[in-house]
């Protein structure tokens, strides 16, 4: 049987729970066999296909030693799955605010204008919500929280941490925005111990800190607005969030008074206590956390949280370390201690004098939430407070990330190992350890194995480069080389991109070489430097810490730094580089804009990195990675490989899945796909910014945000006025098959039907329907059912049945007693009672944000759009998103009608009509809002385009017509409103003209 993983790696939609997974063996490697139904259990795995050479055991040190299920994560996942499947939002057990957010995030794809969240992003936030709002209130699940608290007590005694394991490229920033929205809006509406609108977001470096600016509600292009993370009516609350974004280095206590040693000694005199010139915790927090100290409770969000932990007390699981391993362990330990100390200091400061103050919770996000070398734990041990998991294999099977490929065989017969899979093992001893030793070498002295690896991977890159050019992609693919130290990176950089010795400006170039890899050369064929360098040399660690550049590195990259300064001056003017520009800031800007059109790094083709490329480097154009350093664990492998896993295209194919994209890897012992696959390069789909145009402010349409309805009957004498929308049709599609034929291999067959439902008498049915109506729609102010109305209600229920408003097709009449059908029937009869009882309906407005407007529209979309632009203009919004040809036809009819004063497509407006469907409160989004000139007071019209109508569509229209419109008109202050529905796209224009004439005649009368 063929190995399905290599033939069809992507099995699932990124927007739905995984329903298939590939089989793996006991070591986590893909094996032959068809995909398995269901979802892969969370296991502690990093799948690594075995080398085809027989001595694969030589690399066994990189394989994880355990492959066991994460029982706690899987248990929580099952609870969250069950909770998510509850159909009625009122039964979710969360606050109304949380309920609104969940409905917003889970809404159908047609209601999203731009990119919608992946399932894994929603699941991560759902898990936090469930653990906070649902689990503590259920006896069966409180034990899980006790276990998480115990895990934290052992590792983080002062803090309550919850970790989300999310594969690289799965969108952790979006998850942060959703977490902030959930906490901040709840706290803004009613602050309790479970919620806070204060957030400290801690990143491992300046690169990620800069990228996370999209989490600031005041930032242009923030995710809450541009990515529709927050419903429009909740945007005012999210703007009340207090958010501080920093990198953990700011927790370092700084000198408050710098002085030489002699002066310090003089001032101290004979005092045995040294003079304190270092910040106290309070001073450090005042600088690092700013306004957060005014709050009683603060949420902390750690990005790339595997850098933050407390060293295990008495732990020494790794034994004695030497050389580079010891140095790496010391660096990890120093960073982790500084990070965790800062958060604990904040917790202590907030608790001073406050009964319930402190860090409310710490939300950790990481693709690799494992203890690092030097932690006292065995390297690669999973953080015990991880509560959700979307692994790299899950992400690959959902198509969210590229598929990494590395060598699994070669033609070198002298060795049983695959050389280019773990290159450092074969070249490490021959590589320079320091700048001094590198100065004795030239780029031509590099190990031949390294040069052959560079040439081989570059040859493949050439083909990819040509495919991108033919496809019209405006930026080049990117090739990354990750080096062990500055000495190696300088030599590799010069071998690739070229070098010159001596003072070139003075005409004294003692030595010159244009570079060996033509597409990566920084020199032209005449020896002159290219105006825009193609290859970049970067020291990741120094840039992330915000440190001044190392002298050796600064000298190695001096020409490139000056070149980029000139480019910046040419692009943004001389003022952009006035004075002595910070080189590290400049290089960080270049690195962060690799592959982005119109930015400094747009044409970079190759990046040679000293140390490891930082986490959070968001370039999605990386196609090739070469490792020229030691990789002791799969954790490190996954972190480096992750730099190349971000997808370029997010367009679904005809099957509703992503197409496979690949990243080719050498020198890093990590693999998923062994067989080469050809992938056609595709240009990214253009996006459109849809926004309210300030110059069209007179076309603004204001509308009420309705949260419910209040019915006011003049008396308790009930009467019902039924119409066509009062009719309920029940078919087998609603309740399931009602006739099943059973047969054996031989003998007679038998047909099974639910005869018991056919035997119910009309009086029995009307009694149960009336009882449901009484308990759901006829209660007094104290919530008690109005029992004295029951005879009238039963009479109306019997009349509804007898007059033929209950229609059963292929199902017995007793199917009406199914709970969902009872609820639908009750809703129809209740609306008929309101219509026939002589009373009126008053709309209940959202208590937090009662008003909506077209002037707040601002989002991006990759869908096709139709630009508004009638003369004179009739829409404040720049475009109409083409969700269907019907809607475009209606928009064109509106643009061309002289009675239309203004109109807007209802996309990202926040205009919704609440309605009941099967007993559950839903939200209906009509297609258009129109303001009409009817000769008197303008009329606001809610328009819907609909083809075939099901019971849900009937409930929407009936609610809009019978409850929303009269309820809003009764309020006053929002003008006159009406509702209309069109069902034929081919007669839309004529129908609209007829409707306008009818409305004008009605206004005149």
TrEMBL record:
Keywords of the record: ATP-binding, Helicase, Hydrolase, Nucleotide-binding
SUPFAM superfamilies the record matches: P-loop containing nucleoside triphosphate hydrolases
InterPro entries named in the record: Helicase/UvrB_N, Helicase_Restrict-Modif_Enz, P-loop_NTPase
Transmembrane annotation, as ranges: none
Domain of life: Bacteria
Region entry Disordered, spans: 21-40
One annotated Gene Ontology cellular component of this protein: cytosol
Record's protein name: DEAD/DEAH box helicase family protein
Signal peptide interval: none
GO function terms (MF aspect): ATP binding; DNA binding; helicase activity; hydrolase activity
Originating species: Sphingobium yanoikuyae (Sphingomonas yanoikuyae)
Residue ranges annotated for the Helicase/UvrB N-terminal domain, each copy included: 133-310
